[in-house]
Amino acid sequence: MWRIHVDAAAVLANALMPKLPRGARIVLIGSRTAAGAPGRSQYAATKAALVGMARSWAAELAPRGITVNVVAPGATETPMLNDPGRQGTPPRVPPIGRFISPEEVAGLVSFLLGPDAGAITGQQIVICGGGSL
Fold first, then answer.
1. CA quadruple 7, 103, 109, 131: dihedral positive or negative?
2. Boundaries of every domain in the chain
3. Which of 43, 55, 65, 113 is catalytic?
4. pLDDT tens-digit profile of 74-119?
5. CB contact at 8 A, 68 and 124
6. What class, spelled out in words, does domain 2-127 have in CATH?
7. pLDDT reported for residue 30
8. 43 assigned to active site
9. What separation, in Å, do the N-terminal and C-terminal C-alpha atoms of the chain show?
10. Strand ordering across the sheet containing 67-73
């Protein structure tokens, strides 16, 4: 799990950072679980590590106008959400009454990659339909 969530992001970012032009954007996909969840300690740890890396990279790259952020979705309507292997930790429907759609996550990522997000850096933005309230 660590290799997929943390090492892959580190290898890619470290390879690309020297070549990124001024004003580039980096968006990592985290999880609201980074704050901790029963039975999900290893997953939570990997997603929390992404936040720490993003904040460090954001400080390092800010002089070049490069932003680094983490989008942290809650339960998102994907095939993994209904995986029978999750029976021990079934997802809870957030207060908005439905799960997050992949399009909503993509929309937030798109915004952070665009020109209007130049002043947002080093942040974890949670998109959870109120599930973290």
1. negative
2. 2-127
3. 43
4. 999 998 887 877 767 778 899 999 999 999 999 999 999 999 999 9
5. no
6. alpha beta
7. 96
8. yes
9. 27
10. 25-29, 67-73, 124-127
